[in-house]
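Re-run with default settings, no changes from the original entry. Doing this only to confirm the output is reproducible before filing.
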Amino acid sequence: MEYEVVMGLEVHVELATKTKIFCSCSTEFGGEANSHICPGCSGMPGALPVMNKQVVEYGIAAALVTNSHINQYCTFDKKSYFYPDLACSYQITQLYHPICVNGSVEIETSEGKKSIGLKQIHMEEDAGKLKHDPFTDNSLVDYNRSSMPLLEIVSKPDFRSAEEVVAYLEKLRSMLKFIGVSDCKMQEGSMRADINLSVRPMGSTKLGVRAEMKNMNSLKSITRAIEYETARHIDLIESGNAHKLKQETRRWDDTAGKTFAMRSKENAQDYRYFPNPDLPPIVISDEWIERVRQSLPELPEAKLQRYISELGLSEADSRLLTSSKVLCDLLDDAVANGISAKTAANWITGDVMNLARSDGKIADDIVISSHKLTQLILLVEKNVINRNTGKKVLAEVYANDIDPEQYVKDHGLAMVSDKGAIEEMVKQVLDSNPKVVDDYKSGKKQAMGYLFGQVMKQAKGKADTKLINEILQALLNT
């Protein structure tokens, strides 16, 4: 029998606000345990929540880019559950009137394009974090993360493969980063996904027993977990043990390559939702929505088409550039300062990305001044330094944030462009290497590379390469 996997995702995105959702504590990542807390986010009796307006604006922005309907009247609710890292024994979230519903995100996989439906997006607070100490056999609680602002993006059960899940998460991450809603750093937990998975016979319309894999924050781990959990469901069904499948929450162990049962899966009635009397309803006006809409930057898909049609870049370069807001910002700044798109793209997708890879970083983690990169490219374009010297200066800009113009001056790296001086160096090299000259004249064209290298050596790598080639060819062919 053939089987079909059916999945829905709950994606938690930590918002890029400076302060928490219901208090003024810092949202900065890291810090000593329990150093970013106050009576409100640590659950002290009598402390009341105050709504962070920026969270609402980020919710509106997320709704606009996911084609969602914005509920212009939305409210907050209390969701009760009893974990040590939840100070109040309830979470402030949205159930009855979330900020937006009925959205969609278009993805593209090897099977083609597909629209993933969204049930809703709602605002809520995060819980704290338990830290388990195996040496003392104790568990400690850090409330720094408590009341961090989240958007929970709840999809419909539209996924049928791990490839679709990964494509969806990458698309969400790209859109939300571009509009500045979140940094979506999965390794820091600012974007994580709960995977709800069930298996049914192909062609059936009845959903199977659902298992939820919690707090997944690695695309590679998500793929492995989906593959394992799908196989586990099918094995139990085919071995006649389908009754052993339970609606439960499971934990993925990346080292073991398996999921393990954590607890039975709660239903809405288990959480005892009720309206939060401490927070008034939020009324979102048409003007507010329009103001947020006007503030949105150009999105990745629009940039992709513009880079190809207006800037004349290849589709491959355009896709690489639009995969990261950092790369797009570098390109856009360079083009705005008069550098050709192709030249800027070559530097960014080639030299800058090579430095990042050698540093073990992905594009989104690159930290380099777009102004200084533009300065450097212009130094090469204006023949102040040659391309090889430019690469060395770029490495210094990347590693030490130096000023490229001052660095070139201080280290005497300006290019030798005097035709007479270069011609004199070429003649000296030809006189010193008669055999190589004879090899070239007898048809060994690779000898030109050796002679070019010797001239560059004499010039200490600072000569105009185009001029060297012209003079070499003129003298060798006389």
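The chain has three domains: 3-283, 298-410, 419-476. The chain has a mean pLDDT of 92.
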